[in-house]
């Protein structure tokens, strides 16, 4: 019994010691000082001088938990001394080592033979010595870092000095060697990286690649995180055939503005011996009280800038570079109305292909647009559009030394309309009357009689009507709402002579025949040509709508336009003008949960002849697996006729193209990517790519070969090789944009790990 009471007395003495330690730290009054809790199989010592804990020791202070078999704690200095295996866990990391000296208040000390794991980003590593340099700041001597799981060291970096800032979640390494499969392949004197993926200032991984027109390339980007709402990237791009190009990008965003500015410059191109540059600016801003503005400005030094220095077809295919500034005012007009006023200055830089010249677009210097609408005025809806434009055509010098000058001048458009929408829960009827008035004041005559002031007034009448029927149905054990929507659209526009010998054409072109176009008043874009019409369009649409979500699963539609009179307003003398009826059918949506399609067919119903086919089918069972197949055919698309060395659109040869693309795994961790765009009419490959990708748990290797046409009789070939070390860097030339462009539905599979 005496031994029993002695044991109880010792327990309370030891328990009281830990309580005294806690109380002493709480009385300090500092917000940074937190109470210390200690538990162990045995605790002894003096609570205000020195406490020793033996056996299953656990010390906790805030979110820090230290575990060991033996620990000495000095309450006066707040030092913890541990010899033997130690385990330190916090909210952001886990540390282990052989011995620990740590001040729990200043969080300074050292950990011998350390290993660590960062919970944010999954980074881990080891080293010879781990130095604690304050709250959330550590330094690792002769350390390593990787994001591979324990037991897998496929890649790692070794650094003489590795600093970890957990407050900013960045790592800074000095004298770095990057190893892959135990083979060092890259040395960097300094490396700064974000292990959590957050933005940070510093050099990014070098980018390497090869193109036929630029040679072997290596780029070194520097990212400057200036502020949370704006940043910059400065890249030095070295090309073996061209020299060193500097690419500069600045991005910014505010409460009322945002944009992006890029400036690329190649001093003294080694092939052309000229300085080449590109300027690209996009800025949008809201000024307040309904006023806003936008600037979109693009300029390059020469016509071959993208063809020689671009690495994907999106760049090399650019022909007309927009240079535009707009100011817009939007406001309400009464309870059910709106008014908008826009001022625009617009120009283009045309990058001509010497083997296939085109006519540059007109400049608008300037253009003023006023639109207004008023709804439900005694059951009527009123709309008004007014556009005043100064069209300017810059004289073009042709390769043979001749000059091309087209008529330009002023144009005023007045376009009021009134409609009476009659609508119920199951259908609608909408008659509409419009008046399109155009006035030209030309700098030189177009007409044979020498007139420079030309007027045209065209009335338009349309009647749109439709009915919606619904029923509940079930397909493959899923509940749907099926609709049946017949629609009738009648359009009448009287003929007005608008031949090229009387009226100029600043902007009009014939729009493609489609479901969206067959219910419009004018088959021409712009305002220089107004079609004549006496026709009715009949259409029938059926949709499958998911009962639970309301999402449209599938849509089938057929439509036929029947013309009661020949068309007389045309853009080219060879254009079809007979009263043939046009038939179009389309299906779009998901045929099954993994198969989608978007297909349309246009027929000449009078001759039972196919005019256009647009079809695409995609099989997408899961991320990383996709197969796309498409076919395009058009009879008599605008071809080319050579005239004074310029190419003017006239009906010509048919267009017939097929395209196929896929991303598909074929072995464990391996997947293949391929894309082909082929012209059957010309028996020519327009664009194609082939690639391989290997995905491990912590790294990805991509190899992509891309070939595409940049101009007539000119092609470009680019080879991409990229090693992505998850959570650290991407080494090589990034093909992700090319893959997403060439393979619809492509999934960046390394993001899945």
UniProtKB/TrEMBL annotation:
Keyword Signal (UniProt): yes
Pfam families cross-referenced by the UniProt entry: LptD
Transmembrane segments: none
Chief location of this protein within or outside the cell: membrane
GO BP annotations, alphabetical order: Gram-negative-bacterium-type cell outer membrane assembly; lipopolysaccharide transport
Keywords tagged on the record: Cell outer membrane, Membrane, Signal
Domain LptD C-terminal: 275-670
Gene Ontology CC annotations of this record: cell outer membrane; transporter complex
Statement: the UniProt record of this protein carries the keyword Membrane: yes
Domain of life: Bacteria
InterPro entries: LipoPS_assembly_LptD, LptD, LptD_C
Subcellular location as annotated: Cell outer membrane
PANTHER family the UniProt entry points to: LPS-ASSEMBLY PROTEIN, LPS-ASSEMBLY PROTEIN LPTD
Similarity comment text for this entry: Belongs to the LptD family.
Subunit structure: Component of the lipopolysaccharide transport and assembly complex. Interacts with LptE and LptA.
Role according to the record: Together with LptE, is involved in the assembly of lipopolysaccharide (LPS) at the surface of the outer membrane.
Protein name (database record): LPS-assembly protein LptD
Organism, as annotated: Nitrosomonas communis
Organism placement in taxonomy: Bacteria, Pseudomonadati, Pseudomonadota, Betaproteobacteria, Nitrosomonadales
